[in-house]
Amino acid sequence: MSITVHIPTILRPLTDNQKRVEIAGLNVIDVIEAMEQQYPGVKEKLVAGGKAHRFMNIYVNDDDIRFNDGLSTRLNDGDSLTILPAVAGG
Amino acid sequence: MLTIHTKLVEAMLAQAHRDHPIETCGVIAGPEGSNLPLRLIPMRNAAQSETFFKFDAQEQLRVWREMEARGEEPIVIYHSHTRTQAYPSRTDIQYATEPRSHYVIIPTDYSYGEEIRSFRICDGMVTEERVRMLNSYESNLELAMVA
């Protein structure tokens, strides 16, 4: 089960400057845990209090996981997972 | 320093005043590594708030993918402050994740001035920078502004 993960600029220092990495996993949190093994420090940027961090948007293919099953959103072979920092402020 | 065409500044101001008192927001894309803002993309404020803005996550994905396909990056990320000074709020600083972007704030309450201000925000540190407005770019770049 191979998933292509698109890494935003801000996280590339943690992924040896790679823009895309191939990771195996059955759902979003699986992929994040597997990334954490390879690229320590990634998880705390993506997850807070058991949920996707409010400063980050995570998409499976074209859809924001907040409107699906969050970190439990299931993945299929060949899916892409895109991480983008949320743009917001006051 | 932010170097920017006056037409882009006018477009940001017009959008901000149209949306007032709701905070407006958007991005100006430009060729990667160029530091030159060209293509203005107004974004929907998903928060529809007078004190908060947030790009709609689905719209952001579409726009970011388009920028990547065109070899662009977000040169300017802008929003308005509708009743405070044009200086990054604590929330602005928390959410600022693009050290290479110019964070532009547009005041729409005239008691705080009428000029846009531009900042670099990196690791929680705010640095204000000068805004240099140009009445023209090279002609081939002006064409890209409306693309």
Automatic annotation (TrEMBL), chain A:
<dbReference type="InterPro" id="IPR016155">
    <property type="entry name" value="Mopterin_synth/thiamin_S_b"/>
</dbReference>
<dbReference type="InterPro" id="IPR010038">
    <property type="entry name" value="MoaD_arc-typ"/>
</dbReference>
<dbReference type="InterPro" id="IPR003749">
    <property type="entry name" value="ThiS/MoaD-like"/>
</dbReference>
<protein>
    <submittedName>
        <fullName>Molybdopterin synthase subunit MoaD</fullName>
    </submittedName>
</protein>
<dbReference type="InterPro" id="IPR052045">
    <property type="entry name" value="Sulfur_Carrier/Prot_Modifier"/>
</dbReference>
<dbReference type="Pfam" id="PF02597">
    <property type="entry name" value="ThiS"/>
</dbReference>
<dbReference type="InterPro" id="IPR012675">
    <property type="entry name" value="Beta-grasp_dom_sf"/>
</dbReference>
Automatic annotation (TrEMBL), chain B:
<keyword id="KW-0482">Metalloprotease</keyword>
<dbReference type="InterPro" id="IPR028090">
    <property type="entry name" value="JAB_dom_prok"/>
</dbReference>
<keyword id="KW-0645">Protease</keyword>
<keyword id="KW-0862">Zinc</keyword>
<protein>
    <submittedName>
        <fullName>Proteasome lid subunit RPN8/RPN11, contains Jab1/MPN metalloenzyme (JAMM) motif</fullName>
    </submittedName>
</protein>
<dbReference type="InterPro" id="IPR000555">
    <property type="entry name" value="JAMM/MPN+_dom"/>
</dbReference>
<dbReference type="InterPro" id="IPR051929">
    <property type="entry name" value="VirAsm_ModProt"/>
</dbReference>
<feature type="domain" description="MPN">
    <location>
        <begin position="2"/>
        <end position="125"/>
    </location>
</feature>
<keyword id="KW-0378">Hydrolase</keyword>
<keyword id="KW-0647">Proteasome</keyword>
<dbReference type="Pfam" id="PF14464">
    <property type="entry name" value="Prok-JAB"/>
</dbReference>
<dbReference type="GO" id="GO:0008270">
    <property type="term" value="F:zinc ion binding"/>
</dbReference>
<dbReference type="GO" id="GO:0006508">
    <property type="term" value="P:proteolysis"/>
</dbReference>
<dbReference type="InterPro" id="IPR037518">
    <property type="entry name" value="MPN"/>
</dbReference>
<dbReference type="GO" id="GO:0000502">
    <property type="term" value="C:proteasome complex"/>
</dbReference>
<keyword id="KW-0479">Metal-binding</keyword>
<dbReference type="GO" id="GO:0008235">
    <property type="term" value="F:metalloexopeptidase activity"/>
</dbReference>
